[in-house]
Amino acid sequence: MTPSGTEQHRMIQEVYVLLDDGDRRVLRQFQLNPTQYAALLLLAEHHGVRLSDLSVHLLIDKSSTTRLIDRLSSLGLVERIADPSDRRVQRIGLTAHGRAHLAKVRAAHSESLARRWAVLDGAERELLTRLLLKLRRELTIIQHGSEGGAISSDSD
């Protein structure tokens, strides 16, 4: 019998909670939470991200983004960069310390993920990945009418 959408949704939520708990345990060792880690990962890929774009990407409001950046800045992980074309705009980038710290966090997180995902063999992981990509693409279109927003950075 095929599980209902409600049952599948509940199962996805339960797996998410378990994965999130594992992530939090690892990140706590580095004085980070999952949202802060997501911000650091984004900033590692896109130097000079606008605060407003960071808010959209992280799905948090601008005041929460400001507090998040204040916290990461107090840890010496990020810096605010004046936008040369518009002084009203602040861009955010990783500091050298932020890049080094992120490398350590990534290594610990990757090790933790490898242990947790080892319960699935290669074929199962490939199938799960294809299904999740399809679900993400379709839900994004249904909920946002497009394939998502782009991140604006200096490297674009």
Automatic annotation (TrEMBL):
GO terms for molecular function: DNA binding; DNA-binding transcription factor activity. Residues 1-137 form the HTH marR-type domain. Keywords: DNA-binding, Transcription, Transcription regulation. Pfam families: MarR. The keyword Zinc does not apply. Gene3D superfamilies: Winged helix-like DNA-binding domain superfamily/Winged helix DNA-binding domain (1.10.10.10). This is MarR family transcriptional regulator. It comes from Chloroflexus islandicus.
